[in-house]
Amino acid sequence: MKIKNLIKIVWNALLLNKKRAILTMLGIIIGISSVVLMVSLGQSSTVIISNQFSGLGTNLIMVSNVRKDVMGVMVGTENMKNMKLKDVEAIRKRAHHITKVTPCVTAMEQLVCGSHNYPGVMMGANVDYLDISNSKIDKGRAFTIQEEETAAKVCILGQTVIKSLFPNGENPVGKEVRFGKMPMIVIGTIAEKGKNMTGDDYDDVIIAPYTTVQKRLLNIDYIHMIMASATTEEASEEAVKETQSIMLQMHKIKSDGDPDFEVASLTQMLNMMSTIMAVLSAFLVAIAAISLIVGGIGIMNIMYVTVTERTREIGLRRSLGAKNKDILRQFLFESAILS
Question: Where is the MacB-like periplasmic core domain positioned along the sequence (predicted)?
């Protein structure tokens, strides 16, 4: 039988059973759409996560305090005061895969300008912070090493803070604000970075010299965290190992002891999130594939019923000279068109 005639016969047969054909096709359509949707969602989520992390700088290294572990429970505050400026200097001088490093000290107070106020967290850091955090100056300037050494009362504001303190859109550079009881001069603004997928606002930031926060606001001799930048994204793993080794030596902790700090890289976090998303995507695709399999089984059942119902048609075609392969080809074409 010619292909042209076969297609015509198959098409006419499907038109005679429109509802059955549509319902059968619907199962396959839903199955395929589910698989495509789940794969697309998984890939899109991975891209979004990568973009969010790259906004912070993928070669970012962070050293944070860890509370004392007692019977598996983190308790006490002794370890929270162990990190000092000498740790920062040791990393700066001895870590070959680190290019820039900054101490970080945070303080919470009301930031006030005129009749407007904002409950903010001030990040005290050194002149390398902007490069490490992948932040850009929008207006004004960054603070200098001299301002850092003299604990100058200057600050840089993020866009969210600016919108709250200066709702009329005026330029905040040069304006005086008050953080708690301390007056400060705004010397610059950070370019907008937006929010991440969890809702954290990268623009909700107030930056000042770490000496200003450490000495003038908190009156402490320790720091809360260390941030550093690896030479390259690929060198992040080596940078983490170097930093961990240096910190163990500085804190006089044996390699098999319990460290009072934690070193992590943004690359590690990104890889972990990518792995989680890959597993989740595979799980979702597997679930979607079930609907595709069910659709295939539906076609098989429909075709089985179709063959049973059309025994007279098959017998008539056989009596008119149709061969088994012609009849088989017809039903195969029908199932192929449906799927």
Answer: 22-244
Number of alpha carbons in the 13 Å side-chain half-sphere of residue 19: 0
> Does the residue 296 lie in any domain?
yes
Same-domain pairing of 88 and 230:
yes
**Residues near 315 by beta carbon (within 8 Å), at least 6 away in sequence:** none
**Final residue belonging to a domain, choices 269, 289, 321:** 269
* pLDDT tens, residue by residue, 16-49: 667 767 767 776 777 777 777 777 776 776 666 6
Residue 237 has pLDDT above 90, yes or no: no
Note the pLDDT tens digit of each residue in 205-220. Answer: 999 999 999 999 999 9
- Using DSSP, state whether 67 is helix, strand or coil: coil
Query: Do residues 131 and 66 share a domain?
Result: yes
Which two three-digit tokens encode residue 89? 């200097």
**Unique residue bearing structure tokens 């075709």:** 303
Q: First-to-last CA distance in the chain?
A: 23
Q: Which domain holds residue 18?
A: 3-50+275-338
